[in-house]
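This section describes the prediction task in plain terms. A model, or a person checking by hand, is given the sequence of a single protein chain and must write out its three-dimensional structure as a string of tokens. No templates, partner chains or ligands are provided. The sample shown here is typical of the held-out split.
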Amino acid sequence: MNTCRVLRCQNPVDAVHVWNGNGHRRVEIGVCREHGIRLDAGEERAYERDTPERIMVLMGEDLAGTGDEFVTGVKIESAMYLTAPDGSQAIRVRLETLRRGSAQPGHTEFMLSEKVAGRLAQMLLDSIPLGVDQKRRDDDS
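The expected answer:
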């Protein structure tokens, strides 16, 4: 009997969950009825390989063990009293965060020079795939 691929679940497989592997390849994962419903509803999850051929699904409290924190908000302010090591104006950044599988918010703060802030902004923009609508808006500018 095949068991559900959600960590710690021993229920029999009743559904197939499809994961597109972040666009790299389609993977079909056997899950029980309960987890199939939760996954189809969009519940937060993470995928880990427990062997090269098998993928394990992490959900609920097991997500906290991944250590991933997601940024839920950003506050940026000029640090008028500080000059960065490169001589430019310093910028203070505060990131509001939420650890996967936890309802406890957190935050981290750091300082950037204007030059590094510009590079970071460009890197973030370059990493976001443009949809047709976004490209059209940019072309109109």
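For orientation: The beta strands are 15-19, 27-31, 45-51, 54-59, 69-83, 89-99, 105-113.
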